[in-house]
């Protein structure tokens, strides 16, 4: 890790950053309790521990003044009728924001604040999304054949709070309905 300016590339179509990065893989087994249809989840997991998403973090110190960045790749797929997604998180330092730039694919960012206000924003190549402080967020891939690939940047001291989302999920779900992608209320969400 350098204390000097540095560059890296994000070569397409792989979108795997050049140089040093921390590669995180989240398989279906790491997503227990995240999908609404637990029976479909259990059936899928019994067949294969499918790779749901990957993150490539550019290494920097996790401290104030630094910017952490990387690539998130959510693969296409569904559990029941719910599209593959990231675990989603709030920041431990709640008053920190995050920026996403969509490089490839299609999907949505599901967001909500601690008071339960919810927003769902579409993602497509060229879209830049600003997630304000206090908003938890999760990426969802709605493409049938193509990964959802985003570049992200957030403050080095932000941290991640996955536990809040693990207990009840987000207020909104992204599912395949009778006429395509639908945004629906999560029946297990409680204020």
Written account of the structure:
The chain has helices at residues 38-47, 163-168; strands spanning 22-27, 51-58, 67-74, 78-79, 82-83, 98-104, 107-112, 118-123, 128-131, 136-141, 148-155, 172-177, 180-185. The chain contains 2 helices and 13 strands. The strands form 4 sheets. A 6-stranded antiparallel sheet has the order 1-2-3-11-6-9, with no helix packed on it. Strands 8-7-10 form a 3-stranded antiparallel sheet, with no helix packed on it. The protein has a single domain (22-185), classed as Jelly Rolls (Sandwich). The relative contact order is 0.20. It starts with 21 loop residues before the first strand and ends in a 6-residue tail after the last strand. It is mainly beta and 191 residues long. It is globular. The mean pLDDT is 95. A hairpin with a 5-residue loop joins strand 7 and strand 8 (118-123).
Summed up:
Helix content is about 10%, strand content about 40%. It is mainly β and about 190 residues long.
């Amino acid at each position: 890790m350098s204390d000097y300016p540095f560059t890296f590339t994000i070569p397409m179509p792989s979108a795997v950053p050049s140089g040093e990065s921390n590669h995180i893989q989240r398989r279906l087994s790491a997503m227990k309790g995240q999908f609404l249809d637990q029976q479909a989840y259990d059936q899928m997991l019994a067949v294969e521990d499918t790779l749901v998403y990957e993150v490539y973090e550019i290494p920097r110190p996790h401290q104030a003044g630094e910017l952490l960045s990387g690539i998130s790749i959510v693969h296409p797929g569904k559990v029941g009728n719910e599209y593959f997604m990231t675990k989603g998180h709030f920041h431990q330092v709640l008053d920190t924001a995050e920026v996403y730039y969509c490089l490839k694919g299609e999907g949505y960012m599901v967001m909500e604040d601690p008071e339960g206000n919810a927003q769902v924003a579409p993602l497509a190549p060229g879209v830049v999304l600003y997630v304000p402080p206090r908003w938890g967020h999760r990426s969802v891939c709605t493409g049938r054949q193509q990964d959802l690939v985003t570049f992200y940047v957030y403050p080095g001291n932000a941290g991640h709070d996955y536990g809040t989302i693990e207990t009840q999920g987000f207020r909104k779900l992204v599912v395949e309905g009778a006429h395509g992608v639908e945004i629906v209320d999560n029946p297990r969400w409680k204020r």
